[in-house]
């Protein structure tokens, strides 16, 4: 008796299952457009723009699901090498060593420069200093200058803020400001430097601390902090889209996406979308400089 | 009868295996950490790792000196314990012996709510409120320092210490207290000289668990201590702990790289430190019983 009941129940489940399968198949047929799943990881600098891109992309192609997570450029590149993501966002170029390791694992990273970014140096709003030279920044972040008084500010011990070592911005800043673009330089961030785990916590600390100075991707600049002008020989430029696009703002860099080999299928679709006018507009809206000249000039 | 015997056998077997499994897991975790950490020392010298004063993982060549991290961890933990152990035991004594019953119920449930606050939330409070507050109150150069971390960690360990010591205090036999009162001891004398010593093994267990919570906590310290890899000279300076280092850097390392193995070695050091703490606490527990 019991067994017969069971069979009946099993039958019902079986039919339900069949129905489910058929409905899946039939709905598959009614798909208009491609379907798939894309995992994007990496740079915290790009993560907001990438999220926006993913949302817009999913509106256009409702059957492609795009997941975006941050963590830092290093995280993205490591994930690409470990095959746990499809696209790695990076605010720095891949290092030779990383490319070698990737190739050993059968992964050939392909680079796409998708936009440009300025690295802004921010200070508290009550800080009287507006302009910095690269050498001054170098001395501050390596700990040679420790008091604001030394460069014409108020008395106060300078508190330097940096991102964690997994950040591409950290790498960039280190190469450009700490090592002054000399690859063999042994200079390091002053060990007193605070290593914070996100760009947002750098903003919070600068808002709360009059003596703090930090750096971050230009997309994170907000009204609560002051982004200083940087330059040399009395020519100082603020970190704005205009000056980054013209190449006048010194601390600017390309942002890239890496894929494993030539992108195919939905991944190619996404990369193409990133380069499309709609995609580039997203970068502009999130505070970056679009790669296309015509877009950049519109801003002026 | 026979059924009963098999049942007994099965249950006994299950209990035995679960006990053995736990031991097996601990040994496996240790071996796992050991295997990957030892890979580091093929390319990096042991001396530089244990006595190196610089933690510079992405420099060329990298330096993996863990002295600043170990001292950072010890500093934060020590200060947190100094704050939370006396207050925790005092609160437990108050709840168990002094407070009227209505207050006792309220306090106990409040302590439980305290235990359920996620550490990320405490980290937020640290960044937005406690850090700036300490900076202004103590005239520090930044609020992101060891003390902020210690205070929050103490706060996190408090519920554990309070509820376990309170249980230990409550379970002291009533006859002990009655005997003390009968001999003319005051309430304070009874509490301090009779109840507290008889509950000592439970209280030590509470402290141990509290320390375990503090030294292994990651999120809060990563958010509020500033993470500067410098050897701290005081608790008012930014510092970097072992846990925050692993959490902050693990994501970026390529598995199989020197940096990756170095983080495993840091994990191993952390494991050994907690092991030693547990061992010492166990030893004192045994001595207390004799």
List keywords for this structure.
heterodimer, A: 300 residues, alpha/beta, 10-stranded mixed sheet, 3-stranded mixed sheet, 11 helices, 42% helix, 24% strand, disordered C terminus, B: 290 residues, mainly alpha, MetI-like fold, two-stranded antiparallel sheet, 2 strands, 1% strand
Ordered list of secondary-structure elements with their pairings:
The complex is a heterodimer of chains A (300) and B (290).
Chain A: H1 2-30, E1 36-42, H2 44-60, E2 64-71, H3 73-81, E3 87-90, H4 96-104, E4 109-123, E5 131-133, H5 134-141, E6 159-163, H6 168-178, E7 194-196, H7 199-208, E8 212-217, E9 226-227, E10 229-232, E11 235-237, H8 241-246, E12 252-260, H9 265-275, H10 277-285, E13 289-290, H11 293-299
Parallel strand pairs in A: 1-2, 1-3, 5-10, 6-7, 6-8
Antiparallel strand pairs in A: 3-12, 4-8, 4-9, 4-12, 4-13, 10-11
Helix pairs in contact in A: 2-10
Chain B: H1 2-43, H2 46-51, E1 55-56, E2 63-64, H3 67-98, H4 101-115, H5 119-138, H6 146-170, H7 174-182, H8 187-198, H9 200-216, H10 219-224, H11 242-250, H12 258-289
Antiparallel strand pairs in B: 1-2
Entry summary:
Chain A is an alpha/beta fold and 300 residues long. Helix content of chain A is 42%, strand content 24%.
Q: Which CATH first-tier class of chain B would you pick?
A: Mainly Alpha
Largest sheet of chain B: 2 strands, antiparallel
Low-pLDDT regions of chain B: none
Q: In angstroms, what separates the terminal alpha carbons of chain B?
A: 42 Å
What would the average pLDDT of chain B be, to the nearest integer? Answer: 88
Which chains have the largest interface? Answer: A-B, 34 and 33 residues
User: Which segments of chain A are poorly predicted (pLDDT under 50) over 5 or more consecutive residues?
Assistant: 294-300
CATH fold naming of chain B: MetI-like fold
Shape of chain A: elongated
Percentage of helical residues of chain B? over 70%
Q: What is the number of domains of chain B?
A: 1
Helix content of chain A: 40-55%
Strand content of chain B is: under 5%
Cα-based radius of gyration of chain B, to the nearest Å: 23 Å
Distinct helical segment count of chain A: 11
């Amino acid at each position: 008796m019991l067994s017969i009941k069971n069979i009946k129940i099993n039958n019902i489940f079986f039919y339900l299952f069949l129905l489910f399968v058929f409905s899946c198949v039939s709905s598959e047929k009614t798909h208009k457009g491609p379907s798939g799943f894309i995992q994007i990881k990496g740079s915290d600098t790009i993560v907001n723009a990438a999220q926006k891109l993913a949302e817009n992309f999913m509106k256009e192609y409702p059957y492609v699901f795009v997941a975006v997570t941050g963590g830092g450029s290093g995280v993205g590149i490591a994930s690409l090498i470990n095959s746990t993501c499809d696209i790695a966002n990076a605010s720095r170029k891949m290092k030779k060593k990383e490319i070698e390791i990737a190739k050993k694992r059968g992964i050939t990273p392909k680079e796409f420069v998708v936009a440009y970014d300025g690295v802004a140096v921010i200070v508290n709003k009550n800080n009287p200093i507006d302009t910095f030279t690269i050498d001054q920044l170098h001395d501050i972040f390596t700990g040679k200058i420790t008091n604001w008084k030394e460069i014409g500010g108020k008395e106060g011990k300078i508190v330097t803020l940096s991102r964690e070592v997994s950040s591409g911005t950290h790498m960039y800043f280190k190469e450009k400001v700490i090592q002054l673009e000399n690859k063999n330089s042994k200079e390091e961030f002053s060990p007193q430097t605070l290593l914070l785990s996100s760009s947002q916590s750098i903003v919070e600390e600068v808002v709360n601390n009059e003596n703090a100075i930090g750096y971050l991707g230009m997309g994170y600049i907000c009204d609560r902090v002051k982004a200083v002008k940087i330059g040399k020989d009395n020519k100082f430029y603020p970190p704005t889209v205009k000056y980054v696009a013209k190449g006048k703002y010194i601390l600017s860099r390309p942002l890239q996406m890496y894929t494993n080999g030539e992108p195919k299928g939905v991944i190619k679709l996404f990369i193409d979308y990133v380069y499309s006018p709609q995609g580039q507009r997203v970068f502009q809206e999130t505070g970056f400089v679009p790669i296309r000249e015509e877009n950049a000039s519109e801003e002026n | 009868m026979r059924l009963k015997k098999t049942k007994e056998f099965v249950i006994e077997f299950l209990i035995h295996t679960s006990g053995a499994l736990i031991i097996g897991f601990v040994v496996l975790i240790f071996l796992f950490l050991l295997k990957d950490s030892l890979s580091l020392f093929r390319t990096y010298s042991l001396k530089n790792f244990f006595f190196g004063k610089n933690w510079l993982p992405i420099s060329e060549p990298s330096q993996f000196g863990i002295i600043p991290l170990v001292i950072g961890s010890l500093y934060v933990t020590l200060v947190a314990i100094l704050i939370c152990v006396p207050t925790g035991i005092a609160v437990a004594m108050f709840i168990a012996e002094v407070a009227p019953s209505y207050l006792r119920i309220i306090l106990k449930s409040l302590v439980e709510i305290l235990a359920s606050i996620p550490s990320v939330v405490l980290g937020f409070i640290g960044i937005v409120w406690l850090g700036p507050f300490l900076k202004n109150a103590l005239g520090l150069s930044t609020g992101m320092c060891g003390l902020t971390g210690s205070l929050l960690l103490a706060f996190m360990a408090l519920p554990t210490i309070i509820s376990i010591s309170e249980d230990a205090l409550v379970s002291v036999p009533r006859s002990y207290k009655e005997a003390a009162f009968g001999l003319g001891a005051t309430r304070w004398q009874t509490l301090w000289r009779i109840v507290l010593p008889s509950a000592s093994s439970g209280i030590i267990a509470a402290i141990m668990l509290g320390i375990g919570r503090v030294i292994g906590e990651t999120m809060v310290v990563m958010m509020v201590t500033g993470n500067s890899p410098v050897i701290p000279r005081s608790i008012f300076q930014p510092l970097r702990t072992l846990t925050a280092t692993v959490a902050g850097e693990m994501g970026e390392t390529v598995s199989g790289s020197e940096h990756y193995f170095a983080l495993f070695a840091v994990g191993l050091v952390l494991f050994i430190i907690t092991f030693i703490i547990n061992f010492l606490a166990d030893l004192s527990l045994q001595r207390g019983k004799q």
